[in-house]
């Protein structure tokens, strides 16, 4: 039986899973050790607030930042719809800015053009783990007296000028969800500029799910993460997905989230709190992070080299403003849907709609804007697998599959 390659797997080791399992077996052990070292390994001199998810970190930041109803937030149009929804739920106005096609991140020139009297905040996303042009963005923000917030959900391990990303803005969010480079079955954190120090008290977390709901929140994500191990994905999850899609759409959405859910609404109390086991899991995964990132980078590079000469394939320049962690990897092609379908027949998963041009989504019609490059990325970018435990022969399989699609067409 040919192995089905998922587009993403979290490459956790048995001992990573065991940290979680042990926490279930000894629920009274709530001891938290090494908090400060762990946070400071992730990010330097910042105040850290552990949160339920990355989204909660943004929510918390918006509470703290003192924005007023109707204030404008400048945000890249090619983005995660949930982030835009959160701004709107906070009565803020998203102002969509075009992206740089080479990095998928906000374009400083267009950013500057879109600043108005009402602008208060620039929200920069380090899309796919590619560092944004922080030098220029920070100086534009400063000159215009704007707050600067960094969405580092994809960017743990990404560097800007030798420092871990997330330390230039006034605040930054991090996510440790199941699709992110560090997966602890939920969890996120808010990193704030001074006063330096660690807010390690987990007890200060407010309004989270409790009891069975809190347990299930992480447990379901633990199970999904296990089932995304390629071997298990091949024999269990992949065959079941068609069934879920038809009969349990909410579960399907959790396993293979679509790039857009128009009915999405952020719920503050919907998710489990940041738990002590999560800190231990982060610590273990941090020890392997550099190695995993270099493998991701190597795979992406091999695919790029393998696709050289195909005139229909355009690659990104992920390291344009620093060093990307390649937590996602994509290529531009004329028809990503068709290629994705072809790859699926060869049991290689890919995603033609990882994100959308939010400035064109029907639910954000009110804030519509013309962002040529975001629209191009939305219709031409195809995400390919580059997870670190892909074997060399599987990387070759991906290259050959893409090549043969273009060579026959
Ligand atoms: C995943 C993600 C977030 C937030 O993550 P959660 O922990 O799932 O709330 C924010 N921004 C982007 C771009 C993301 O992909």
User: How do the strands of the widest beta sheet line up side by side?
Assistant: 4-2-5-6-9-10-1-11
Task: From the alpha carbons, calculate the radius of gyration and give it in angstroms.
Answer: 20 Å
- Average pLDDT confidence is 93
Uncertain spans: none
- Figure out the total of helices: 13
Sheet having the most strands: 8 strands, mixed
The N- and C-terminal alpha carbons lie at a distance of 27 Å
Shape: globular
Number of strands: 14
Strand content: 5-15%
Q: Based on the structure, what is the oligomeric state of the protein chains?
A: single chain
Structural class: alpha/beta
Topology pattern, helix = H, strand = E: HHEHEEHEHEHEEEEEEHHHHEHEHEH
Residues in helix, % = 40-55%
Which hetero compounds are present in the coordinates?
Answer: pyridoxal-5'-phosphate
Short description:
The protein has 409 residues and is of the alpha/beta class. It is 41% helix and 13% strand.
How would you describe what is shown here?
The protein is of the alpha/beta class. Helices cover about 40% and strands about 15% of the residues. The strands form four sheets. An eight-stranded mixed beta sheet has the order 4-2-5-6-9-10-1-11, with helices on both faces. Strands 3-13 form a two-stranded antiparallel ribbon. It starts with 13 loop residues before the first helix and ends with a helix. The model has no long low-confidence stretch (mean pLDDT about 95). The longest helix is centred in the C-terminal third of the chain and has 31 residues, at about 275-305. α2 (about 35-40) packs parallel to α10 (about 275-305), α3 (about 55-65) packs parallel to α4 and α10 packs across α13 (about 390-409). It binds pyridoxal-5'-phosphate. The site of pyridoxal-5'-phosphate has 12 residues, from α3.
